[in-house]
Every structure is written in C-alpha cells, then in structure tokens.
From TrEMBL:
Domain of life: Bacteria
Sample GO molecular function, one term: phosphorelay sensor kinase activity
Cytoplasm listed as a keyword: no
UniProt keyword Transferase, yes or no: yes
Part of the whole protein covered: 256 to 485 of 485
Domain named Histidine kinase: residues: 20-226
Lineage of source species: Bacteria, Bacillati, Bacillota, Bacilli, Bacillales
Keywords attached to this entry: ATP-binding, Kinase, Nucleotide-binding, Phosphoprotein, Transferase, Two-component regulatory system
Coiled-coil region list: none
UniProt protein name: histidine kinase
GO biological process: regulation of DNA-templated transcription
C-alpha cells in the first residue's frame, strides 16, 4: 500500500511538470505541422519520402503530448453511476476489428446484478482500451483475450483482462506504469501510466499477474457504490 502511495505521489509531481511542458510544446508543434503541410505541395518525389517520415514522427510527438496533457486536465470530471459491463461491452465492440485482424477472439464473462460504479465512463473506457490494446500487441499469433467482471468482495468489483502473450519478466513488473517504460520499438510507454492514474483517481487499484511464456492478467479493483448512502 505504501509503495502504491509513493508511486502515485511521484506520478502527480512528474505528471504536472510533464503536462506543463506538453502544453508549451503544443503551439510551436502546431506551427511546424502547418508549415510542413504547406511544403508538401512543392516537394519532388525524393523529398516526399522524407515528408512521410516527418509526418509519422510528428504524429508520434502528438500522441505523447496528448497523453501528458490528459494528466493536467482539471479534476472537474463528472463522476456518475455507471454500469461497468456496458462500458466494457462498448470497449470490446470498439476493438473487435483490430482483434480479428490479429486472429484474436474475446471471451467475456460478466456477472449479472453487479452494483453500479461511480466513475467517469470515458476515462474508464480509456483504461480498458489501453490494457486490451497491450494484450492484442503481445499476441501476434492470435488466441484468446479473456475478460471477466465479477464481484470481488463486499466493497469492490474486479475486472480481469487476461492474455496469452509472452508474459512480463518479474523484475519488470515494478516498472509498469512508469512514464516511458516500454519494450516496444514503436511504443511510448505512456498508456499504463495514464491508466494507473485514472484508476487511482477512481480510488481503485491494479494487480498484475504474469507467467512468462504463458500470459498476463491485469486485475483492476474498483469500489462499489456504497449501498448505505441510499
Ligand atoms: P506501450 O504500449 O507504448 O509500450 P504501455 O504503458 O501501454 O506502453 O505499456 C508499457 C510496457 O508494459 C509495454 O511496452 C510492455 O513491455 C509491458 N506490458 C504491458 N502490457 C503487457 C502485456 N499484456 N503483456 C506483456 N507486457 C505488457
Ligand atoms: Mg500500450
């Protein structure tokens, strides 16, 4: 628990700093993108190859800036009572095409009659998208992604996302959620950082189980709405 707290404090300071920088970088970036577009029309064939590289790399910078700006968003997000199964169903629908392209099928087990979760639906969706995308990316040969939503105990609901990828080395487990930790050539190592921050803001927690060569399970625990209030 202490470990978790320390981690989120560091995240807050780093997040604010990085978000500040991201904000400052955005305007000059917009100018660069605009002028590059203008140049495109006057480029010959050879140079248009460079143009493609510049565009791809600019898009990459853009995605990094967007992730960090997200961290600095004012906390005025609207928490509402939501059915977490509906949020997950929408997420799965969104990612189905990408999964099928990779020969991956979703298996879903949803417990009926679960209480609502007090949450910002779009933010939780972002968490599920990030974690499921990671699962897809570690299964190049296809297979099953198993999603389970069930009551964990009196206070919380457990969402598990299990893949059949290569797993995570034990000494790397600690690094999950650290900014820029990535093992992918084209990764940015920000998806989990943002996801952990959102889960933290929802007073939830994450536990990752992984067996090398077999797969990984992300378990997300979210508080049930306290029935006694009503
Ligand atoms: P990115 O996907 O851009 O690398 P993330 O923050 O989403 O950034 O993930 C960070 C790293 O955590 C990944 O590069 C990978 O090493 C590891 N990781 C995350 N999810 C999984 C998974 N399901 N199986 C194996 N490794 C994972
Ligand atoms: Mg990712």
């Amino acid at each position: 628990m202490e470990e978790r707290l320390k981690k989120s404090d560091t995240l807050n300071v780093l997040g604010q700093l990085a978000a500040g920088i991201a904000h400052e970088v955005r305007n000059p970036m917009t100018a660069v993108k605009g002028f590059i577009q203008l140049l495109e029309s006057s480029m010959d064939k050879e140079h248009s190859m460079y143009f493609n590289i510049i565009s791809t790399e600019l898009a990459r910078i853009d995605s990094i800036i967007n992730e960090f700006l997200f961290l600095s968003k004012p906390q005025a997000v609207k928490y509402m009572e939501n059915d977490i199964i509906i949020i997950m169903r929408e997420t799965v629908k969104l990612l189905n095409a990408q999964a099928l392209l990779n020969n991956i099928q979703f298996r879903t087990y949803y417990e009926y009659g679960l209480p609502s979760i007090l949450c910002e639906g779009n933010q939780l969706k972002k968490v599920f998208i990030n974690i499921i995308k990671n699962a897809i990316e570690v299964m190049p040969k296809g297979g099953f992604i198993t999603i389970t939503i069930q009551s964990f105990n009196e206070d919380s609901v457990k969402v598990s996302i299990e893949d059949e990828g290569g797993g995570i080395q034990e000494d790397k487990l600690d690094k999950l959620g650290q900014p820029f930790f990535t093992t992918k050539e084209r990764g940015n190592g920000l998806g989990l950082m943002v996801s952990y921050k959102i889960i933290d803001e929802h007073k939830g927690s994450v536990k990752v189980d992984s067996i090398e060569g077999k797969g990984t399970t992300f378990n997300i625990y979210l508080p049930k709405i306290n029935q006694k209030i009503f």
